[in-house]
Each structure stands twice: as structure tokens, then as C-alpha cells.
Amino acid sequence: MLHCFTPGGIWPDNNGVHINAHGGGIIxxxxxxWWFGEHKIAGEAGNRAHVGxxxxxSSDLMNWTDEGxxxxxxxxxxxxxxxxGAIIERPKVLYDSANRRFVMYFHLEPVNxxxxxxxxxxxxxxxxxxxxxxxxxxxxPNAGHWPENVRPEQQDQKSIGQAMQxxxxxxxxxxxxxxxxxxxxRDFVKGQQARDMxxxxxxxxxxxxxxxxxxxxxxxxxxxxxxxxxxxxxxxxAFEHRWMEAPVIFKHRSRYFLIASDCTGWAPNAARLAVxxxxxxxxxxxxxxxxxxxxxxxxxxxxxGTFALQLDDDRVIFMADRWRPxxxxxxxxxxxxxxxxxxxxxxxxWSNTWNTGNM
Length: 359
Ligand code: GAL
Description:
mainly beta; Tachylectin-2, Chain A; four-stranded antiparallel β-sheet; globular
């Protein structure tokens, strides 16, 4: 029995095997927590999906039972978008109680997409929380829809044409070309790029898909349909050209807080905190949420966020990954309690060990 979290350590499951659920997220269902994450294999090959999405369950968040593979990749060489060798990242699951259906979203790059070029969102569903999940589709969100906060110049045909005809390859890391082009307009017809992502379900039941879009330069916050199976077409752009990845979101005293990373691939960087009174914004950046020494502030405890597990209004767990891209299976989990200062602003502090009893 484990009695505490040890951020960054080996985290054995019920079989004594290090938990294999990277870039994960958690839902609570019938008094059990379910953790879904990327199953990684050893070596650099493990940065691609060879097995699928792994599920674990727990009643206390420390001791996890291996529940097997919730979404399996299709055989190598198959025409499926989730064939073995695809990139399947950051899975998150929500429950649609009206239809008794669990819906999973993830970042999907099919095998033939040439790395991270496709920027698709994968959607899968299951009748039971553990799965098996059936892959439904891989899409670019919000095709044919302008964001709620669109600006007139983004709808201008000339700037759309210029962006569509741009001859070069545009990188998905911080670059000067992206802000000079109307990438939103360029992708209006075929749908918006979606890479790093999370899901968030608000108190009113509305669910949102928050993803890095426009070559990772800008976040989109997109409402899902009531059955969770797609995007409603209502969305907002936020943090324009701020290059934010790994978004996590939670709510405290009626305000929305977002913690995201900078855009530096597997290498950790300084996290950023932001607050808003409405999920669509306007968002106000509040700087680095880490309270600690310079190194901890610069690399977010050597980790990158993946999910904020909200136990109640005051108790939130920041879940992050310490990636090991050279031996992906050895990636570690850094879970820390979100603390709140006197102004109800969240911050993060290192703890070698802790448990939910001292949150
Ligand atoms: C990170 C991202 C990870 C993965 C990685 C690949 O920035 O958060 O999910 O995509 O890049 O380099």
C-alpha cells in the first residue's frame, strides 16, 4: 500500500510495475478514479503509439490497479488513422450521462503525417469506463466556423489567400512567420490545427476542448456538443502568438485558471498561469505559478502539465509529465497539490512526498 505521492519517482501499480499512462487525465466514476494515458514502450520508439491508451483505476489516487488497454492501436500498416506507429498523445475522457457513454479525445498524428503535420483530434467512445473504446474519427476541429472573438481582418479573403499561398514550410515551434500570416483564415475551411490538448467540463455540464492551434502559436477553447462527440462550432482564440502548450484548466471560487507551458518539445520550460472570469476569456496572464528556486521555476520541476484533477473547489492536483524521450517508458509523473494564496491565486511548490490528507 502506498500512503503518499512521491513526485518524479517510480510509481508502482498493483502488479509492482511503473504506471504507464503518460500525458494522462483522470475522471471519477462511481467513486473510483480512472486514469487514462499514453502507453509507452522502451527506447525512442516509445514516443509513438505501439499499444494504445492505458487505463488504471483507484479509490485513493495513490494505489492504482492496471485495467489494461482502453483503446488499442490497429495493426501496423492498416489504413486506420490509429494504426500502430501513429502519434497518440494526451488522451482525456469525459462521461455523457444522458447516453451512458464515455468519450475520449486525444491528439492524433497518423503514421503517414510526417511527424506532427496533421494536427488532428482523435475521438473514441465506449459504453463502459474501462473500454474497450471504439475509434470514431480523426478531425480538424471547427471547420467552417469562425471563433466568437474573430477580427474582421481574419475574414478578409486577401489575407486568407496570402496564407494559403505561403510557399515555405511553417514550423510548429516559435517562429516569426506564423504571426505574419492569417493561419486561422487559412484553416477555416478544412478545420483548425489541434495538438496539445485537455478537456474541461464546467459546473453547468458544458464541456470544452482546449488545444494548441495555428502551429502551436495560439490556444483555442472550443465548446463540445452535448453528446460530447464533436465540436459545437462555438470557440474562442486565446493567448494569441504566445506559443502555449500542455494546457491544464481548473476552477476556483468561480474563476477559471489555466496553467500551460512554453513550446519547447520534450524539454521542460517555465509554466505560465492565467485567469479569466469566463472560459472564453479575456484571459489575463499572471506569470509563473511555480514558487521555488530558479531551476524549479525555469523547468516546472522538470515537468510539463497534463491535467488538473479537481477534487473540489479548494483541492486541485496539478498532474505533469517528466518526459524521458530517449526511453519513453521511463517517463515519470509529477503530481503536486495546487496551493492558493490570500488572494485565491494558485501556485505550485515542490513536495518530496505528500498525500491528499495534507492538501
Ligand atoms: C511537447 C508536447 C508533447 C509532445 C512533444 C513532442 O511539446 O507537449 O505532448 O507532443 O512536444 O516533441
